[in-house]
Write a structure and sequence with these properties.
Elements lengths: L2 E6 L10 H20 L3 E8 L4 H10 L3 H18 L6 E4 L3 H16 L3 E11 L4 E2 L5 E4 L8 E2 L16 E5 L8 E10 L5 H10 L5 H13 L4 E2 L1 E2 L16 E2 L1 H19 L6 H4 L5 E8 L3 H14 L9 E5 L2 E3 L2 E2 L10 H7 L2 H10 L7 E3 L1 H31 L11 H22 L3 H22 L1 H7 L1 H22 L4 H10 L15 H4 L21 H17 L1
Parallel strand pairs: 1-2, 1-13, 2-3, 13-14, 15-17
Antiparallel strand pairs: 4-5, 4-9, 6-7, 6-8, 9-10, 11-12, 15-16
Helix pairs in contact: 2-3, 4-7, 5-6, 5-9, 6-9, 7-9, 12-14, 12-16, 13-14, 14-16, 15-16, 16-17
Length: about 575
Amino acid sequence: MARHLITSALPYINGTKHLGNLVGSMLPADVFARFKRQQGHEVLYICATDEHGTPTEIAALKAGQDFETFCAERYASEQKLYAAFRLSFDFFGRTSRPQNHELTQHLFKKLDENGWIEEKTMQMIFSPADNRFLPDRYVEGTCPHCGYDKARGDQCESCGKELEPTELKNPRSAISGSTALEVRATKHLYLRLSHMVDKIRAWVDSRTGWPHLSKSIAHKWLDEGLQDRGITRDLTWGVPVPKPGYEKKVFYVWFDAPIGYIAATKEWADAVPGRDWKSWWYNAPDVTYTQFMGKDNINFHSINFPATLIGSGEPWKTVDFIKGFNWLNYNGGKFSTSSNRGVFMYQAIEILPPDYWRYYLMSRAPESSDSDFTWADFQATVNKDLADVLGNLVNRTLQFCAKKFGPAVPPAGPLTAEDNAFIASLQSAITSYTSNLEAKEFRKATQDLRAIWVLGNEYLATTAPWTAAKENPERAGHILNLVINFLRLVASLSAPVIPDTAEKIAAILNTDSPHQYWPQADSLQAELKALAPGHAFTIPEVLFQKLDDDTTTALDARFSGQAKAA
């Protein structure tokens, strides 16, 4: 048994999460965590809400709430939403809790002691009306490149250009709307990344097996030359900076958020006596650490966060494998939380149960390139894969068996050449599926899972128990015995991707939890005898409802309207 630490990118507390957020980090991390647990490994899947920073302050102010209340309400709603999609976090914490404050301040002090922190003076926008310096997102104005009049001080959402607040034309405060702004000098603390290039490059090069996307982004940043990175901001909501002269500043959110992985693990440990968070993070050579995230987060996790841990001089666990994802687009354009474009998680779960979405998203995981969500493709996948291939396999097998032999497993007979060919194909498919899950190749793994379902349908079509039942009922009973035992394996193999359906199949078969074991390809002969003759099952309901054209057309129109309005 191995120990696997798994984290997915921390969802930002501001803004509703869409399907792209789900498939870009949390869902694949959940599939991998479930898979590893079923194999019998010790797994700790950690996540948390990322609660500090400018967007949180702005959103809370617009909502007329104090920061603590805003974040607490959002955290509760996010928890419910992720539970609805069956994300199996071992712990879901918050970066605003004391554990993150303490660890962030500790790591800062170690970096400062080791000479990796430098104070610099910079020019920033000051608003006399608000009596404060305005961080980049607190400044709005006209983009100097495209003329968009609602550009933020860090980036223009219209043309995508990165900006500095001082570049904006007609700048105004996002708090008060005041245009009477000034440029003043202020001091901030910087992490000296420019002096850590060799250390970080050696660390990146020591990581083996990273996907091309993750490695290429890390090397791009290194090759272009690392710049010192500011780690403090003129905000009130965040982790206080424990240094004289910085009493009115907090740490920049990118600095404290990754530390939140460690802090959330400490929250997990603090909740139950006897848990040891340090065994996962501090001097932990027996732990394999895997991170899941969208490509926009890779630079922070391949450069900045490792620099923080390495620069501390302490034996913190650094990531072994970064699984990065490209974008899931919506009808040819980007999902956008800020523009309300696309299908959001709370909307999706109101339309259909989680397994419909989980299976579709994993089958279209944007690994080697961006992928595109369309309602037509979603309908075809649900109807063909889930309803026709898997749902039909379960229903017709058990309904026919109940009709001809009663609702119990019929006796088995001797294996024929057809049976052995089926078992050999199943062994090969399970081996491929397991291998692709191990490699975090989720699109391929989902194709393998579908191929396993197809094998059952093909075996039924070839052996035709409904025909055999007329002339050789013993052979028909044997075929059904084999397929019903196969369905038990299907439940277990499907559990990482569609856990609710896996539980339904196991309940129909009156068998053990599908989450407790992983079928071994080299022991299928025994696995396919687990349900003995006479073992009772129940007649199943339809597992998946098909989507008709009218429903899909209506959904397409509904969300296209949302996109156009945005």
